[in-house]
Design goal:
There is one protein chain. The chain is an alpha/beta fold and about 140 residues long. A five-stranded mixed sheet has the order 1-2-3-4-6, with helices on one face. Strands 5-7 form a two-stranded parallel ribbon. The two termini are about 25 Å apart.
């Protein structure tokens, strides 16, 4: 397992840290799978009373990793469908988690990063936080 997701527990609060600061916490298939699994486990854990989603470094999340997206352009239609369903499952899991979820936002929250924030119950942002659905610049419809 990679260290793209750091999990910390303090009493009954679980903090999930997106941990790819050099890439502004952009997500790829591996991070999507790890985050989904961690959220599902938190939902089942009776000791967890709240989940905080945060990003290491200067940004909360720049959304999808552009290198990963470029690689998916060459993938089959079925692979792209599975990839899209995995992202949808992550967002649905976060949105429907049976525990309060809090987005702790600093710096950039772009593209899918905005989606993560929107799926949380509460968002707390620093005054330096910036939000944008920047994929429209690439001709993509925000998910």
């Amino acid at each position: 397992m990679s260290d793209a997701l750091r999990i910390e527990r303090s009493a009954s609060v679980l903090t999930l840290w997106l941990n790819r600061p050099t890439l502004h916490n952009a997500f790829d298939a591996a991070l999507i799978a790890q985050l989904t699994a961690a959220l599902e486990a938190a939902g089942r854990d009776e000791q967890v009373r709240a989940v905080v989603l945060a990003g290491q470094g200067a940004s909360f999340s720049a959304g999808a990793d552009m290198q990963w997206m470029r690689g998916m352009a060459a993938a089959s239609e079925e692979d792209n469908r599975e990839d899209s369903l995995a992202l949808a499952r992550l967002m649905r899991t976060l949105d429907e988690l049976p525990k309060p979820t809090i987005a702790r936002v600093q710096g950039a929250a772009f593209g899918g990063g905005v989606g993560l924030v929107a799926c949380c119950d509460i968002a707390i942002a620093s005054t330096a936080a910036r939000f944008g659905l920047t994929e429209s610049r690439l001709g993509l419809l925000p998910a």
